[in-house]
From TrEMBL:
InterPro entries: Aminotransferase_I/II_large (IPR004839), CobD (IPR005860), NHTrfase_class1_PyrdxlP-BS (IPR004838), PyrdxlP-dep_Trfase (IPR015424), PyrdxlP-dep_Trfase_major (IPR015421), PyrdxlP-dep_Trfase_small (IPR015422). The keyword Secreted does not apply. This is threonine-phosphate decarboxylase. Its cofactor is pyridoxal 5'-phosphate. It comes from Paracoccus caeni. Decarboxylates L-threonine-O-3-phosphate to yield (R)-1-amino-2-propanol O-2-phosphate, the precursor for the linkage between the nucleotide loop and the corrin ring in cobalamin. PROSITE patterns: AA_TRANSFER_CLASS_1. Its EC number is 4.1.1.81. Keywords: Cobalamin biosynthesis, Lyase, Pyridoxal phosphate.
């Protein structure tokens, strides 16, 4: 089973390569975040109300294309990943591999027997199946019809749609089977990971058990207020989707000029096959650009999308140096 390493470990970059103005491209978090507005004082001074929960839930349900009674705000998708394995009796679980490693790790910690497989058909007969769609880090994707078919062959199906906001066509939420649970992240697409906000989409009985497991006031008031404002801003969301559609191709072009091969990705990150991932990461780090490599591959390197002209200039300069050295 894979380890629990993660991107976002900028402290490690600083310790190895020195302090400075770092560009953290080691995650898939949008570097052009939704512009946070000022909030009324009561949001900071009071516990979140039932009306605040209802308001956020309705806006989120409209974004996901499902009924509000199936939506539960949580303290980040990662919180749900830790809680969900303990809601069901432990048994045999299948998890797509390679993928986000917290799923297999949290299932194993909860007593599940975990099989990491490279195709969703191999999970047929499992008590629980986990699919990240689109997948992290290689960007593989499965249609809702394929996942609906898989749900009929397993006890429960968890679909992690943390990177699906720019791809509503991939979401199972509008027509999800009763035994499915969908996870959605807020921080990645809207670029506000520090809020620790996410959503679980499931049958009401599962949401009730999650609510009990999470305890009261699991999501703070400012996160709810900002989340509701951001998710209602569809003009910003459309612009963000278009930017990342074009920016991903731009990053691919720079990487291929440096001799790397495009190996997958999503709107929010790209995956490259490099001659040597450690060397490639170190090269970028010399320019104070932090990237993500993986313990199971000595060639794969993942990069998030630069967010502004100055970041693009620095990334382009790093790839020029790579071309010159090569």
């Amino acid at each position: 089973m894979t380890g629990r390493d993660h991107g976002g470990n900028i402290d490690m970059a600083v310790a190895r390569f020195g302090a400075g103005d770092w560009i953290d491209l080691s995650t898939g978090i949008n570097r052009r975040p939704w512009p946070v507005q000022s909030l009324p004082d009561h949001v900071w001074h009071s516990l979140p109300t039932a009306e605040a929960v209802r308001h956020l839930t309705q806006i989120a349900a409209r974004w996901f294309g499902c009924h509000p009674e199936r939506v539960l705000p949580v303290a980040g998708a990662s919180a749900a990943i830790q809680m969900l394995p303990r809601l069901f009796p432990a048994g045999r679980a299948g998890v797509i591999w390679p993928s986000y490693n917290e799923h297999a790790a949290s299932l194993g910690a909860a007593g599940w027997t975990v099989s990491e497989v490279d195709a969703i058909d191999a999970m047929a007969g499992a008590d629980l199946a986990v699919v990240v769609n689109p997948n992290n880090p290689d960007g593989r994707q499965w249609s809702p019809a394929r996942l609906y078919d898989l749900a009929a062959k397993v006890g429960h199906l968890i679909v992690d749609e943390s990177f699906a906001d720019p791809r509503p066509d991939l979401s199972l939420a509008p027509q999800m089977p009763d035994n499915a649970v969908i996870l959605r992240s807020f921080g990645k697409f809207w670029g506000l990971a520090g809020l620790r906000l996410g959503f679980v989409i499931a049958q009401p009985d599962i949401l009730a058990r999650l609510t009990e497991a999470a305890g009261p006031w699991a999501v703070n008031g400012p996160a709810m207020a900002i989340g509701a404002l951001a998710m209602a801003d569809t003009v910003w969301a459309d612009d963000a989707t278009v930017y990342h559609s074009e920016a991903g191709l731009r990053l691919d072009h720079l990487a291929m000029r440096g001799g790397w091969v495009q190996a997958g990705g999503t709107h929010l990150f790209r995956l490259y096959d490099t001659p040597n991932a450690e060397t490639a990461q170190n090269m970028l780090a010399c320019h104070h650009i932090w990237s993500r490599r993986f313990p199971y591959s000595d060639r794969w390197l993942r990069l998030g999308i630069p967010g502004n002209a100055e970041e693009w200039q620095r990334v382009a300069a790093a790839f020029r140096s790579l071309s010159e050295d090569g």
